[in-house]
Design brief:
By secondary structure, this protein is mainly beta. The chain contains no helices and eleven strands. Strands 2, 4, 5, 6, 9, 10 and 11 form a seven-stranded mixed β-sheet that branches. A four-stranded antiparallel β-sheet has the order 1-3-8-7, with no helix packed on it.
Length: 119
């Protein structure tokens, strides 16, 4: 069994910063891509950023230059540093990972963490 546990969400003022963390645990052989998605009320879930095991990252245009994704492969953990936060960044943020487990490769999701940007 594999679990993704997120932390770091909360309430922050516009222009502020937050750092999200997501740790994967369980029967993990290796982790391919790790990423962050978000879903605002009434909107579809969208990709925020992703990073490969080799460190290649990809960002949504809306967060380029403000958010930074990183990962610690030894700890099976991915981070999202969010700076210059805007009200439109308010959403539930979900961690996502494609993980090689015994027998097969599966995609896993975290439970989500709320990020609210408001004055």
């Amino acid at each position: 069994q594999v679990q993704l546990v997120e932390s770091g969400g909360g309430l922050v003022q516009p222009g502020g910063s937050l750092r999200l963390s997501c740790a994967a645990s369980g029967s993990i052989l290796s982790i391919n891509v790790m990423g962050w998605y978000r879903q605002a009320p009434g909107k579809q879930r969208e990709l925020v950023a992703s990073i490969t095991s080799g460190g290649r990252s990809n960002y949504a245009d809306s967060v380029k230059g403000r958010f930074t994704i990183s990962r610690d492969n030894a700890k099976n953990t991915v981070y999202l540093q969010m700076n210059s936060l805007k009200s439109e960044d308010t959403a539930v943020y979900y961690c996502n990972a494609v993980i090689l487990v015994p027998v097969t490769k599966l995609e896993f999701w975290g439970q989500g963490t709320q990020v609210t940007v408001s004055s």
